[in-house]
Amino acid sequence: MKTKIGKMPYINSDIFYIHMEDCFEYVNYNPRQMGLAFEEGVIKAGPIATVDFFRINKAKLFEDLCVSTKESAKSVLLFSKKCKLQEITKVFITNQTSTSVNLLKVLSKYYWKIPNPLLTENRMEYDDCDAFLFIGDEALNMGLSRGMSPTQLPFSPNKSSLKVIDLGLEWFKYTSLPFVFAVWAYDDIPKEEYQRLKDSLYHNLRFDGDRYINIPIVSQRRSTDYLKESTITWYLNGFNYRMSKSENDSINLFEQLYNNLQND
Q1: Enclosing H/E stretch for 80
Q2: Most exposed: 30, 82, 199, 224, by fewest CB within 10 Å?
Q3: Residues paired with residue 120 on neighbouring β-strands, in sequence order
Q4: Domain with 259 in it
């Protein structure tokens, strides 16, 4: 039986899977599913949400691999009917999120200094909400449809009645740090398999100057009539996939604030 590796289907993680090893079985999961699959031992490695890394004791960092936004996330977006954050009382939350919903809570308390709004995943309550949190490709497409573009960030008020708030950008404005949405983690992998996975991932993340050389491949294969290659390239150039001191500092700060919330 092949060792199962988590595969994040979002465009921003596609670069990890340009080349995949035949000795592994890669299984698609969204962030919340990925954490559960890792915790239950279904997968032995994968990019798990940062919050899941905090809470799963057996999770060990797989090298220095992560999904980190330099400034704007562009795909972790809060769409608000209200002009002022203080007016938001109820937020619909996508059921795919593990970290982003906690980032929203941290920003609400420590940066925006507003009461945490009521959160719901119940679609029946959607119309009653003041704001809506979406992540991944769904959020990216929603943002683009509302005017988000390489020349207009974070949104164009002429194209949308909703205020669009980029949580990655809000974190950067608060801390001057990138935000790490996921880290690669592993548990109980034989040494030989660990090395093969490591070699594959680093091969996929090769640099040319200050750019990942496989971004054009991702842009080409994930482009559609609506989502152009140039837009995907612009989007992906906003990510880091290797942890530096800034990413480590960000993780440590977020963990501290996250834990403070849990203890309140």
Answers
A1: strand 76-80
A2: 224
A3: 92
A4: 3-69+179-263
